[in-house]
Structure formats: structure tokens, C-alpha cells
Fold this protein.
Amino acid sequence: MRLADTLLQQCIYQHSSQLNLDPSRDFGLTQHECDARLKALRTALDRQQQLLWANNGPAMVIWLQGPDCSGKDGVIRNSLRGLNPQGVRVSDFQKPTELQRRENFLERYRRELPQPGMLTVFNRTPYEGLVSDLADGYIDETQATGRLQQLLEFEAQLAADNIHLIKVYLHISQEQQKSRLQQRFTNPEKHWKISAADLTGHQHFSRIQSNWNQAFKYSSTASHPWHILPANNKPLRNLLFCSLIAQKFAALNLQWPQPELPFAIEDLDAPTGI
């Protein structure tokens, strides 16, 4: 089943440690233990997601961020497997188009927010409009400060709208990123995933990590903390991610709806009149 709250607490961003924690740490769990617990946890998540769908009230959105090759696609694929596709949506956000740059940077994210009863995952987050746009020169420091305030207000509005937010950053080492890029080169079926941005991201890995760390300092709040998941170990990464979802479901404490039934069971045996 899901990992203990005390362990998940260790993944919350801390100003003192920043992003200096070992992305290979395993919390004493073996790969076999992670796989076994994840298998059982998926069954529990399936039931909880059905409860969310049945209640048609609260919704959940997961903002997933991480360096190239950190496993964003993989953790989504492994974690949502077996859930009812009617109640799940994954929204992927690439570099904004010119048209999207003419509107407020949050608009494309607002359009993808979950409806009541839905669980949605954002593959890349609104914080790219702060961190990446500042690094790439699209905005200056003053504009970045304004965007940070908009992001915090956006998160507060989600809570007011009964949309429950989980913020996740997959933390890998530069060495692990290099290894995974090399694996893509040796596997022709992965060549389509290689882009020039992968090389740039790898060469500037430390600077990019530092930029994200600055964002976490001001946006990891008591109500909406950033969870920094060690992601060198894929089975542990998947288990931590699913455990965070299960933890949020537990906090919602959803029950099966008890509506007034439109007819009695005895009516099934009543004459039809035909």
C-alpha cells in the first residue's frame, strides 16, 4: 500500500536542503518491495478514483515537473494504469506557440483544469512560464515577480474551486540524465524523443536546477508544497508518486453517494402492462 506520511513528508521541499538531497536515495526499499507495494496501491487508487468520479464534486490536478529524462511520461504511464479513463485526463504542455504567448501565460493551463470528479495530470507546469521564460529572456525580473504572484493566486483559486492540487518535481542527477540520453541513442525506437533541447538542457543542468530551486523557495507553501521525488530509481519514483495521490485521496475521505433511489427493487418484478 501507500508509503507512510512520515516518509512522504521527507519529500517536501525544504529551504535548508534545497535540491541537494541525493536523487538516488531509496528510503531502505528494494525494487521488489517497491513493485509489490505499487501493485497493491494501484488497486486502492482505482477504487478512490471511482469514488472521485461518483461524487462529481471535488477534482484533483497534479502538476508534474522535472528535467529532461526525469521520467515524467513514465511515471504517468505507470501510475495511471488501470484507472477508469473516463475520469482521467493527461494534458501535455510544450513550448508555447506565438498565439499562446500573446495571451496571459496561465490561460492555456486554465483551459485544461479538471471538471468535478476528474483527475488530471499536467505534464509540465505553469511554473515554466516563470522559470523557463525568465531564463530564455521572454520576461525580466520584474515580470517574473508578477508571474509568481499570479501563480500563488491561481493555486489559491484552485482550492476555492474544490480542485485539489499536488505539485511534484522529479529529481535526477546529471549523471543519470546522461545515462538515459545515451540509452535513447542506442535504441532506435527512442530516437524520436531526442531533440536539440536535450543537449542544451544537459549542458546547462546545474544552472537550470538552480533556477528551479529559486522558484521552489517562494512557491513551496504550507498549503501547496512542492514534493521533490528522488527519481534516479524508477520503481521508487512510481511508488512515491502514487503514494502522494493516495495520500490526497485519504485526506478527501470520500464516501459513496447515497442518492434517493428512483424506484424500489420490488419494481423490477412488477407487471410491465404490455
User: Anything to note?
Assistant: The longest strand covers residues 163-171.
